[in-house]
Write a structure and sequence with these properties.
The protein is α/β, with parallel strands linked by helices and about 325 residues long. It contains 15 helices and eight strands. Helices cover about 40% and strands about 10% of the residues. GO terms for molecular function: hydrolase activity.
Length: about 325
Amino acid sequence: MDAQTKTRPFHILALSGGGYRGLYTATILRRLEEALGQPLARHFDLICGTSAGGLLALGLAAEIATEELEAMFVSDGKRIFGSRSLLRRVLGKWVLAKHSAAGLQAVLAERLGEMTIGDLKHRVLIPAVNYSKGSGQFFKTPHLPKYETDFRRRLVDVGLATAAAPTYFPLHRIDGVGAFADGGLVGNSPGFFGLHEATRLLDIGDDSTVRVLSLGTMTRGATLRGSAFLDRGLFQWGAKIFDLVISAQEAAVNDMLRHVLGNRYYRIDDPATPDQSRDIEKLDVVSAGATTVLRERGSHAAQRALGDPAFDVFRKHLATPPIFYHGPNKNTGVVTC
């Protein structure tokens, strides 16, 4: 990376996971893109996304219109979260995953086709958990010489990997790589991963201003009623344990980024009111009520951000065209930074 690039501001977009609540994020992205008048990805030097946020991040980096990304939830939400045979209706969540991955796979194939990470126009970082080796794995564009394999991965496979939420969807196997579970298990809010990528791996210089714009999904803090039974086994925990993991992680990352970056960290999210919580309580509920809440609150959140002077730095920033070292978008013969 050249000296001039190291001193320019470096902006990171971080998109959280949240199942169908990703519609809230998608609505914000659409409204921001409309206001900025060009593909939103061109304003960010690195796009990070987990689970539903990972699907959006891949779409943004491919410069798919945000209107189409929003439609992926509105028009196809029931296909994604409705692939339930009679067997899954009886055994789903307890013996089998609640939903088949067939609906999500079909929706992703229609929008992403046979594109690979190497076809993307902007840097991405997509967390998942490789259950075959028991650790997190991060799919990345070839923006460093050592990133020699991920550019071959199909976007459909990466999307299925990062969104394989335990109890909701089956694990997703990528042949020769591993069986993957939802990226929310390692980092539902991926802003800190993006900050590490920029400062420690891309070696953005100390003279450069690194900022993070983080978008949530109206994440409900997973909490316990005062009268709840405390001695819980698998039956009582069920999918709630995954909800608790992503909620706790998101809160921790939010606090740490505020501490580390101060006013260089900007967060767009909203708490649900008690009445609205009933509509969006579960990650996989696709209903008219949930759709209305998520789209209306997303539109208001975007309008609030666009009117906030603190958001202006993100509006005005244009990313430096990325250097890719491998794949169809390779644009350098240099093998070292």
